[in-house]
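check this:
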Amino acid sequence: MPILCRRDDFSLVGRSVFETKGDIVRKVIVQQFVSLDGVVQGPGTPDEDREGDFERGGWTAKHAGDLLSDTFFAWTADDDALLLGRKTYDIFYAYWPTTGDHPINKRLEAMDKYVTSRTVDSAAWVNTTVLNGDAASAVRELKEGAGGPIWVSGSGNLTHTLMRHGLVDEYRLLIFPVVVGSGKRLFVDGAIPADFELTSSRTVGNVIIATYERRA
């Protein structure tokens, strides 16, 4: 089961657009499940992402509980969009449409979805648009369009591309009390330096849920 996130009382801080230099643009929000040592690879299941011979997947299972559904409904609204890398899109599409009337699936079906790819021109999932070519340029164009925030879930390679181009406006991190020891990290060399402010935080069990918004 992919880690998307039962509806609850999470804050909707910053759920709309934001202002910069007098222009209204859409936020790009990166949501990630991250270990204490910064690993984001394969949080959901052992076989979710074995790239690089990674064998430690499923490290959220002991602590996740209802977090797998809580944050999704609390943080997204009907006009939000979901932006995915090709591998994460394939994982989501292989699972969620099979769940029928599951509330998360119904929300996902209704959302505009974008997938970045240099190898495919179309996607079968309803309301999905393929962004060919340069991902950073395509996301800049999306930010200037109409609609709610643009969410990135998983999609490590795409997230790193957005970091390198200064396109991440907000991080919403679920930090798990686990040291994985190896695997893909959230923050790697090459990100454009930026200053962020902690705008909300809470704990659920031993998991820290923190929102960081980029300062102007």
